[in-house]
Amino acid sequence: xxxxLVIGTESKASxxxxxxxxxxxLALRVKQGQKGIGRLSAAALGPLLLLISxxxxxxxxxxxxxxxxxxxxxxxxxxxxxxxxxFDVKTDLWQLLPGLFDELxxxxxxxxxxxSQQEINPDRTFRVINAWEKYSAQxxxxxxxxxxxxxxxxxxxxxxxxKEHIEEWSAWNDPNGSGTALxxxxxxFDLKAQLASDGATASQNAxxxxxxxxxxxxxxxxxxxxxxEDRQSGYDFPEFNYSVVIKSGLVRKPLIFSGRNFDIxxxxxxxxxxxxxxxxxxxxxxxxxAFGKWIDAPFxxxxxxxxxxxxxxxVGQFFLRxxxxxxxxxxxxxxxxxxxxxxxKSDDFGGLRVYRDGLRVLPYGRESNDFFEIEKRRxxxxxxxxxSNRRLFGRVGITRSxxxxxxxKAGREGLIDNKAAKVFRDLVENVLMAAARRYxxxxxxxxxxxxxKIQEENEKTRAEEGQxxxxxxxxxxxxxxxxxxxxxxxQLELDLREIEEEMALSNQVDEExxxxxxxxxxxxxxxxxxxxxxxxxxxxxxxxxxxxxxKNFRAKVTSAEESIGRLRSSLTIALKKxxxxxxxxxxxxxxxxxxxxxxxxxxxxxxxxxxxxxxxMVRLEKLVVExxxxxxxxxxxxxxxxLLGEQSLEDLIDFMEKQRERLDLENSDIFAGxxxxxxxMKDSVGLSEVALYSVxxxxxxxxxxxxxxxxxxxxxxxxxxxxxxDGLETSISDALVTMPSSCQKTHQYEIIKDAxxxxxxxxxxxxxxxxxxxxxxxxx
Length: 780
Prior knowledge:
The structure is a single chain. The chain has 22 helices and 14 strands. The protein has four domains: 186 residues, no CATH class; 190 residues, no CATH class; 214 residues, no CATH class; 81 residues. The chain is 55% helix and 10% strand. By secondary structure, it is of the alpha+beta class. Strands 7, 8, 9, 10, 11, 12, 13 and 14 form an eight-stranded mixed β-sheet that branches. Strands 3-2-1-4 form a four-stranded antiparallel β-sheet, with helices on both faces. Strands 5-6 form a two-stranded antiparallel sheet.
């Protein structure tokens, strides 16, 4: 408490270390930030603070303070009191709290100091009251509706702390625990905004911006890009967890937590990576991954200018790790899933950040901060200056011991702008520019040679993905339809059997009414049977587990067709025998029935097609609007830079021509393909049938190729075995010839000789399968 609440204590530069007993097995934590930053940060969360702290095997200590008291310039610091209490039992806090509030209020009203042994001091009371009267009068003259004194009084009177606010603190529940809890009242706007829902009003927009800044500030607060090589080089940070949770009753809503990051594994999935370290002479030594492939040669770059050698301006060793991806998916070596993930996460975790001993140095990495002038350089020559905060993840890692001249400003607004900070920035910018020109940007030979192949591979991959999607869709639709059709086919079979049994048992085949009723039922079943169809090409070539069900389904449909034909023929003969009285009416009725069935089917198909066409028209109009404005939005930053004199006319024209060519190619791929598809539809070309046929032919070709590979493997096997067996056969034959004549006359000898001959005959039979063909002999 002395270091927090007493002015003029020793600086963070002192070598005092936390005792091993208080660390509870944790490693030493490097001191960060300038002196006073803890108090400023606590005050920024909210003006009223209840601070509760406990060391191992010691009492709880609590203090209550409202930071706005120090805003009064007429108040003597000697007259300000901060109530502090000690207690052994945690429940005692709730009895002590009213006294803490009363004593804190004495800084406004000058009352008795209950928690000190001082006597009532009338002079202090007069000075306190007089100071607040002067300050309040000054605030009213400046136009404030509510004075600081009124705000403090309101918060102190209305605030209530209870056990729910502290029950999850580990030191509160563990008798051997230790730690510090900060309970804040009258929370700042940025904290209250996290509770609000998004909306469209001005205040809601401000809350939305506060939410975004809050998440951007606390996300990746711990360096997520540390690997084992960094640890071995002396750059590391012990495990540290943090979270922001909104609690409402029993409902907990996590907003931010330390595990929600774009981490080292995600970065290694990117197609472009630049990593390494700067030594004390400013020389960068690292390695590069470009378009998904690591470059064998190391990337070594000396500094471009003289480095400061003085002790107060020297920059020591520090680390760099950056990953990026191509904005245009067609130029990317990443698959669709990884590219989409990187693009999505770039909004929350993108940008080049700075970490000191593993903790983030703000505000670097925020969208509004361009410390390394990445976007400024890109606005002058986008193609050459490859790096962009919208497509970049990474950090620069420094240490307090190695870079003591890189100091934070008092309010955490970044590094103090001294010579060391300038050298530090120049070193990083030099590496970024050199890497862009050598490996990633339009001036890079690697990029020029890689893009054509990448585009070709991506087009092939997209086609294969399209076929895969079509194949999956085909199988899914087939299984769904088969699941619906199969029970209908079973019911159709039963209904036909019922009619057939009725006709077989009926003795009233001479009554026209009964015959016409059977005919109507038979027509209904014929219509149902007609709906049990799979469109041409919609049945997968390989049915897998559905093969048996489809076989049974086809058998039932075929049986139904035969039954309908047989029963219809029988009914036609029976009607002719009784010579019905109204053949014209029967013909008209059948005609209307068939027409009605066909019209209903066409109407349903037509309504579905119209709905899809209307939805596609809306999508097409949006696409046209988006593509019409895309060139303007891309060129606007370049035009602004040109008008401000930051870019030459030649560079601007060159940039616009390249963007026009790129966008025209993209638009051609989209709209020309769209029109070609519509033209084919106009010519009644069944695109689904063509696509499914293509998929089926590819599967057929793949199967045949696999068979060829199998035969080739068989040929290789035969050739190897044949060569070995030739030698073995010769050895056996030679051995048989040289055996004694007494052995050659035995029955066992004849068996061995006959078996050897049969093996030779079989090998000669397999000889045509040898890939190398028969052995050729040449007389020398």
